[in-house]
Specification:
heterodimer, A: 156 residues, mainly alpha, 0% strand, elongated, disordered N terminus, B: 452 residues, mainly beta, Neuraminidase, four-stranded antiparallel sheet, globular
C-alpha cells in the first residue's frame, strides 16, 4: 500500500496532469495548426510538380495553399489566445513547438511574396526552396514536440 | 537522454531570430535605386541587371483631379486649355474629317482573380483611379473655329470597352476589346443609332489583361492594323492565353480575315504612320517587376513579320528568366525596338504631327502620351513628350511638352492617355482621371498663358 501511494503521488503533480489530461478536450488551436501545416506541405507538393511540369495551374495551387495556411495560422493564433483564456491546457512543450511553428509561418509569409512573382521564378528556385524549408521546420517541430511530450509522460 | 533531445528546441529560437533577420534584410533589399530616366531615352537605353522583388513596389499617385483654375503646363510658345470637361474616363480620341472630335470613354473589363495578388493589385489600381465605371461610349464634341465646343452628343453607346476608332470612307470602325465593329457614318452625323456589323473577333475575355485595341487604317483603306496586348505581365497566365496576342494584327477590311503582322510586342497601345517614309510605328508598354529601370517602354517602327521579344526576351536578346521553357529560335531573331521612352512611363497615346498649327519644330515628329508609372519610385511619365524625327527616324532626345499632371506632392491632377491632332493642328490629349480633353495650340501673341 505504502509503495503504491508513493508511485501515484509523483505523476499527480499539477504540471504532469495538465499535459496529458485535457478536461475540456483537445485545445482548439491545435486543430487549426494541423490544418495550416497540411496546407504548407501541400504547397511543397504542387511546387515540386510545377518544377517538373511548369504549368501555371500548379503555380496557382501553391500560392492559394500557402495563403490558406497563413489564414489558418492567423485563426490558430486567435484560438490559442481563447484556449489560454478559457483554461484549455497548453501542453508543457508548447514553447519550443510554438517557436518552430511561428518560424514556419514566417517563412511561409516570405514564401507567399516569392510565390506572388510572375512566371517561373515565382517557384524555381526560391519558392520551392522556401516550401521545402517550411516542411523541414514543421517536421522538426513535431519531432521535438513529440520527444518532449513523451519525456514528460515517461518522466513520471 | 534528456539533453540531446532538448537541444534542437533550444536552438530553435536562435534559428528563428536569424531567419527573421534575414527576411528583414530581404525586404529592405527591395529598396529601389532607380536610375536617371534620361539614360533610358533613345536608341541605346542603359539596361541594368534583372532584379526580382520579394515585395513588388506599387507606387501610384493619389488622384486629386483639377480645380477650375488648374491646368497642365506647357512651355513658352504654346497654350493649353480644356476642350471639354466632365467626361467619364476618356481613353482615346479620333478626329473626323469635318473636325468633330470623338472621345472614347472606356475602361477595361473586370479583371478575374486568379491569385491572391490580383486582389491586392485591384485595390492599388482603384486607388490610382483605374477602376472608374466603364461608360462604354463615344462622345462627339463639335468645336467652333477657336477650339471651344459648340455641341456635345453621345455619338455611340453600348460598346464593349472600346479604344481604337478609325473612319474609312463612310465606314466607321470601332475596336471593342473583343471585336472590330463597323458602323455606317455620314459626314456631319452627330450620333449613330444603326446597329454595328462585326468585321472580326479580337482576343478578349475571360482574362483580357491588356484590353485596349489600338486601330489604324492603311492609307489606301484596304487594311486595318490592330494593336493587341498580351494577356499577362510575363506569361503568368500560361502561354496558351497568349494566342495571337502581344501582336499587331493586319485585318483585311473586305473579308475580315487577319494575319499577324508583327509579334512579341507586349502591349502595342498606339499605331501611327510615319509621314516621311509611310512606315508603321507603334508605342508599346514593356514588362514589369524586374526593377525600376526594366524594361523601358518604347516607340518603334514595326517590320512586317518582325518579332520583338516578348515574353522570351527584351531589347533584342536580353533573356527574361521568368519564362520557361525558353525559345532560343525566337530570341535569336528578336528585334530591338528603335527608341526607348524609359521605364514604366506607360505610353498610351501617340500622334505623328503633320499639322501646321503648332510651331515648326514639331512637324514630322511624334507626341507620346505617358500615363505614368505605378510600380516605380520616383514616379516616371505623367506627361506628354515629343520625339523629334528626321528622315523617318527619331533624331534626338524626347522633350517634355505637357507636364504638371503631377504636383509637388506627387498627387495626380490628371493622367494623359490618347492623343489626336485636330483639324486646325491643335494637339488633343485625353486625360482619363482628370476626365478632361485638353487642347494644346500655339500661343497667340499677347494672350494670357492659358485659360480653362
Amino acid at each position: 500500500m505504502q509503495q503504491q501511494a508513493a508511485i501515484t503521488e509523483v505523476p499527480l503533480s499539477k504540471a504532469a496532469l495538465r499535459s496529458t489530461a485535457t478536461p475540456l478536450g483537445r485545445p482548439f488551436h491545435k486543430i487549426l495548426v494541423s490544418f495550416s501545416a497540411a496546407y504548407f506541405a501541400g504547397a511543397l507538393v504542387t511546387d515540386l510538380v510545377y518544377w517538373q511540369m511548369p504549368d501555371v495551374m500548379w503555380e496557382r495551387f501553391s500560392i492559394w495553399l500557402i495563403v490558406a495556411g497563413l489564414v489558418l495560422a492567423g485563426f490558430a493564433t486567435i484560438a490559442y489566445v481563447i484556449d489560454l483564456v478559457t483554461g484549455r491546457k497548453i501542453d508543457r512543450p508548447a514553447i519550443p513547438r510554438a517557436v518552430g511553428y511561428v518560424l514556419a509561418v514566417l517563412l511561409s509569409l516570405i514564401n507567399a511574396f516569392v510565390h506572388s512573382r510572375d512566371g517561373y521564378t515565382a517557384i524555381v528556385p526560391a519558392g520551392l526552396t522556401l516550401s521545402g524549408l517550411v516542411v523541414i521546420v514543421l517536421l522538426l517541430t513535431v519531432r521535438v514536440g513529440t520527444a518532449l511530450t513523451n519525456r514528460s509522460r515517461v518522466g513520471g | 537522454m534528456r539533453t540531446p533531445r532538448l537541444s534542437p528546441s533550444a536552438k530553435l529560437p536562435r534559428l528563428a531570430a536569424l531567419l527573421v533577420a534575414v527576411a528583414g534584410l530581404g525586404l529592405a533589399g527591395c529598396d529601389d535605386h532607380a536610375g536617371d530616366p534620361k539614360l533610358q531615352i533613345g536608341a541605346n537605353p542603359v539596361l541594368p541587371e534583372v532584379q526580382q522583388y520579394l515585395m513588388p513596389p506599387m507606387r501610384v499617385a493619389k488622384v486629386v483631379g483639377w480645380s477650375t483654375d488648374e491646368h497642365p503646363t506647357v512651355p513658352q510658345g504654346l497654350h493649353i486649355q480644356a476642350l471639354a470637361i466632365g467626361f467619364q474616363h476618356p481613353r482615346s480620341l479620333y478626329v473626323l474629317p469635318n473636325g468633330d472630335v470623338l472621345v472614347v470613354e472606356s475602361n477595361g473589363p473586370k479583371a478575374p482573380i486568379y491569385r491572391p495578388k490580383d486582389i491586392i493589385t485591384g485595390w492599388v489600381q482603384s486607388f490610382a483611379g483605374a477602376k472608374a465605371k466603364d461608360a462604354n461610349r463615344i462622345t462627339l464634341v463639335r468645336t467652333k473655329g477657336d477650339g471651344t465646343p459648340e455641341l456635345r452628343t453621345v455619338f455611340l453607346d453600348h460598346l464593349n470597352s472600346p479604344f481604337g476608332v478609325t473612319l474609312v470612307g463612310n465606314d466607321l470602325y470601332v475596336a471593342n476589346t473583343d471585336a472590330i465593329v463597323r458602323f455606317p457614318y455620314q459626314d456631319g452625323q452627330t450620333s449613330i443609332i444603326a446597329p454595328g456589323t462585326k468585321l472580326t473577333d479580337l482576343p478578349g475575355g475571360p482574362i483580357d489583361h491588356h484590353w485596349t485595341k489600338a486601330l489604324l487604317a492603311s492609307p489606301d483603306g484596304s487594311k486595318l492594323y490592330v494593336g493587341v496586348g498580351s494577356n499577362s505581365n510575363i506569361g503568368e497566365n500560361g502561354i496558351g492565353a497568349e494566342y495571337e496576342r502581344a501582336a499587331i494584327w493586319e485585318v483585311d477590311r473586305a473579308s475580315g480575315a487577319h494575319r499577324i503582322f508583327a509579334s512579341g510586342i507586349r502591349n502595342p497601345t498606339g499605331l501611327q504612320w510615319e509621314p516621311e517614309t509611310g512606315k508603321l510605328w507603334a508605342i508599346a508598354n514593356e514588362r514589369d517587376e524586374i526593377g525600376p529601370d526594366l524594361v523601358p517602354d518604347y516607340l518603334t517602327s514595326v517590320q512586317d513579320g518582325g518579332f520583338y521579344g516578348w515574353p522570351y526576351s527584351y531589347y533584342g536578346q536580353h533573356l527574361d528568366p521568368r519564362i520557361v521553357p525558353q525559345r532560343p529560335d525566337l530570341v535569336a531573331k528578336a528585334i530591338a525596338p528603335d527608341y526607348a521612352l524609359s521605364s514604366h512611363v506607360a505610353p498610351l497615346g501617340v500622334a505623328m504631327y503633320t499639322g501646321t498649327g503648332l510651331p515648326e519644330n514639331f512637324r514630322g515628329g511624334a507626341f507620346v502620351g505617358e500615363h505614368g508609372s505605378w510600380n516605380r519610385t520616383p514616379l516616371n511619365g505623367y506627361k506628354v513628350v515629343f520625339v523629334p524625327f528626321s528622315g523617318g527616324r527619331p533624331s534626338g532626345p524626347a522633350q517634355d511638352v505637357v507636364t504638371g499632371f503631377l504636383d509637388a506632392n506627387n498627387h495626380a491632377h490628371g493622367r494623359p492617355v490618347g492623343l489626336a491632332v485636330d483639324r486646325t493642328g491643335g494637339l488633343l490629349i485625353a486625360d482619363d482621371v482628370g476626365n478632361t480633353v485638353w487642347r494644346v495650340s500655339s500661343a497667340r501673341p499677347g494672350s494670357v498663358s492659358s485659360i480653362r
